[in-house]
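Quick illustration, no need to memorize.
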Amino acid sequence: MMNLITKGYVTAQVNAQEFMKDNRGSIIEYVMIIALAGILITAAKGPLTTLVTDLVASAKDTVTAAAPGNDG
C-alpha cells in the first residue's frame, strides 16, 4: 500500500514539474487573472461594504424586534 502511495506521489510530482516547465506562458496568464480579480474586488468593495452593513443592521433590528419579552 505504501509503495502505491509513493508511486502516486512521485507521478504527481513529475507531472507538476513537467507542467511548470512546459507552461511558463500560462503562469503569466494566471498572474494576470489574479491581478484582474484583485482589481474587481477593489472596485466592488465599496458597494459590497455598504450592502453588508445594511444587511447586518437589518438582521439585528429584526432579531431585536422578535426577541421574547420585547413588546416593541
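The radius of gyration is 25 Å.
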